[in-house]
Amino acid sequence: MIATSPPGKPPLSILLCAPRGFCAGVVRAIDAVEKALALHGAPVYVRHEIVHNKYVVEGLRRKGAIFVDELSEIPDTKAPVIFSAHGVPKSVPQEAEQRQFFAIDATCPLVTKVHREAEVHHRRGRTVILVGHAGHPEVEGTMGQLPEGAVLLVETVEDVGRLVPPDASVLAYVTQTTLSVDDTREIVDALRARFPDIVAPHKEDICYATTNRQEAVKRVAPQVDAMLVVGSPNSSNSQRLREVAERAGCPVSRLVLRADDIDWAVYGSIARLGITAGASAPEILVEEIIDAFAARYEVSVETVTTADESVFFPLPRDLRGEAAE
């Protein structure tokens, strides 16, 4: 992609991080709502924002999706009821079954993997330590897979020092999928130092997309005067990208939803700008922001690629082939 602007404006070199934007789990979740609307018509109910991006949510709302915080807000209906990509506590599908809803689970398969890990550890008598952010829907969903008290949440290294598990010899840990790789490594190192017998995941829980996007930012951030992350404030992986850029030495790192949110005073004298996007941010918003800079600067764009992604997740079973019919 190359964007140019009229001569006479200050030059600006944009380094565009790749990978960026939508991951396979986000594509699957959005496609699930689109497919349900196409097959069944409006309305389609969605518990929680399907992904953490206001632009995406508003677009689906205009097409007939109705977003709710809890199933209690949904009237008795035969319309599809979709669970968001972040995952839900077990009590949610149980409530949906009791009310005879046509429930469709759009939880990202990589989040489901963490749920299954936690369940296996619990069956084997282990207390589960969850590394994550309190209040995040994914964390609430993971903790809600097990009985109350079976999962202990830690957010910081200091939290590890305060842990009082029932039996320190039978512990396991899992993590939220959208965390900072470096922050999580520090917390896991602290867990292993304090509890040497703690059982680790067979494969790291932080998802491939989070890791790849953070690696691209680490490559670009030291080379630019400012880093702009396209994403919503309530998007965990987007916030982590902003933090990663700061730690990698970028003097200015900002998170914006779209071009209208840019504080132009911040970028007055820069010569090199890095741009990336969180895993729930559509590429059209990246293009919108590049166009906004091209209106003010003589822009050249270079893509910096650190990984190739080819991951694909099929739609939920109820929306596939014969099942959808």
Task: Outline the structure in words.
The chain has 11 helices and 12 strands. It is an alpha/beta fold and 325 residues long. The chain folds into 3 domains: 11-23 and 208-305, 3-Layer(aba) Sandwich (Cobalt-precorrin-4 Transmethylase, domain 1), CATH 3.40.1010; 25-108, Rossmann fold (3-Layer(aba) Sandwich), CATH 3.40.50.11270; 110-194, 4-hydroxy-3-methylbut-2-enyl diphosphate reductase, catalytic domain (Cobalt-precorrin-4 Transmethylase, domain 1). The strands form 3 sheets. The protein has a 5-stranded parallel β-sheet with strand order 10-9-11-1-12, with helices on both faces. Strands 3-2-4-5 form a 4-stranded parallel β-sheet, sandwiched between helices. Strand 6, helix 5 and strand 7 form a beta-alpha-beta unit. The longest helix has 17 residues, at 24-40. It is flat and about 65 Å long. Helices cover 36% and strands 19% of the residues.
List keywords for this structure.
Rossmann fold; alpha/beta; about 325 residues; Cobalt-precorrin-4 Transmethylase, domain 1; five-stranded parallel sheet
In short:
The protein is α/β, with parallel strands linked by helices. It is built from eleven helices and twelve strands.
Classified by CATH, the class of the largest domain is: Alpha Beta
Order of helices and strands: EHEHEEHEHEHEHEHHEHEEHEH
Helix content: 25-40%
Biggest sheet, spatial arrangement of strands: 10-9-11-1-12
Overall geometry comes to flat
* Radius of gyration over all CA atoms, rounded: 21 Å
Question: Any idea of the CATH topology of the largest domain?
Answer: Cobalt-precorrin-4 Transmethylase, domain 1
| CATH architectural group of the largest domain | 3-Layer(aba) Sandwich
Instruction: Kindly estimate the percentage of residues that lie in beta strands according to DSSP.
Output: 15-25%
